[in-house]
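Lecture notes, part 5. Sequence design as translation. It can be helpful to think of inverse folding as translation between two languages: the language of shapes and the language of residues. The source text, in C-alpha cells, appears below.
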C-alpha cells in the first residue's frame, strides 16, 4: 500500500482510503466486493461502477453499498442511490 495506508500523506498527495463497493443492481447480488482506493465513498462507487451516486434516495433507486474501515475504528458503510432528476411542474 502507498503512503496513504497509515493516514499520512506526502506534500501534494490526496488522502486515499480503500473502499469495498458492492453492486446491488442485479436480482442476485454478487457479494464479491470491488476494491477501490478513493477519497470518498461516492468517488469509490464512481470508479468501480462508472455511476454518479448520492447518499439519499428511495429503496427502488438503491445501487450500491460501500464499506471501509479507518485504522483502529469499526467498519463503516453507506448506501448509495442513483440520482433522480426532479420533475418540473
Amino acid at each position: 500500500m502507498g503512503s496513504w495506508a497509515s493516514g499520512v500523506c506526502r506534500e501534494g498527495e490526496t488522502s486515499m482510503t480503500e473502499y469495498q463497493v458492492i453492486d446491488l443492481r442485479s436480482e442476485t447480488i454478487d457479494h464479491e466486493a470491488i476494491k477501490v482506493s478513493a477519497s470518498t465513498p461516492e468517488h469509490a462507487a464512481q470508479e468501480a461502477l462508472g455511476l454518479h451516486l448520492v447518499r439519499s434516495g428511495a429503496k427502488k433507486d438503491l445501487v450500491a453499498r460501500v464499506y471501509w474501515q479507518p485504522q483502529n475504528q469499526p467498519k463503516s458503510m453507506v448506501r448509495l442511490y442513483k440520482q433522480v432528476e426532479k420533475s418540473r411542474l
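The translated text above is only one of many valid answers, since several sequences can fold into similar shapes. The first strand starts at residue 17 and ends at 23.
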